[in-house]
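Morning!

As promised:
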Amino acid sequence: QKEVEQNSGPLSVPEGAIASLNCTYSDRVSQSFFWYRQYSGKSPELIMSIYSNGDKEDGRFTAQLNKASQYVSLLIRDSQPSDSATYLCAVSGAGSYQLTFGKGTKLSVIP
Amino acid sequence: GAVVSQHPSWVICKSGTSVKIECRSLDFQATTMFWYRQFPKQSLMLMATSNEGSKATYEQGVEKDKFLINHASLTLSTLTVTSAHPEDSSFYICSARGSRQGMDQPQHFGDGTRLSIL
């Protein structure tokens, strides 16, 4: 059974701070990792994808992957109230295009 | 790029009605489309994987005769909820994956369909 674990939160950070979201996965052969943002009542929106160990930066977002520790994280710098949403970690394995989602971490950015 | 259109956004209908939901990839060809269901405050649960021109693969516990999936072209997949009942009320979301080879093709989601069965 493939599992993706996230802290459900809520995670509250003040505006302008760094928000750190964490995710662990059970399937050691997982190859592709994604972070999606989901606003209440809306569908998920792709924020970041990462496939190799290390950091990947895109604007205020940085994804970090450590396959040895089976750990992937998302950092949001200069957090804004508009970043308040649920962040879903998703993982796909070798030879599979299917995604396994975590339950999501609810982020609240306080003005 | 990578726009997925899902229609309708909202459906409210009586118990016993069949409801069809369309999912279209607007600017890319989607070899594979996925159908998810999400209950309030829960994560997305994959219902089925749909490949163009072949039968859908359903996840365990999902009734294939109740949730009919057709993926007749590289840009369109449909989900029909047959004889819907109140327990089928949920948020249904489709996603599509591009047809390029390789693992670096993320899924892009439609806006979802909120289904309410009275």
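The radius of gyration of chain A is 13 Å.

Hope this helps with the figure draft.
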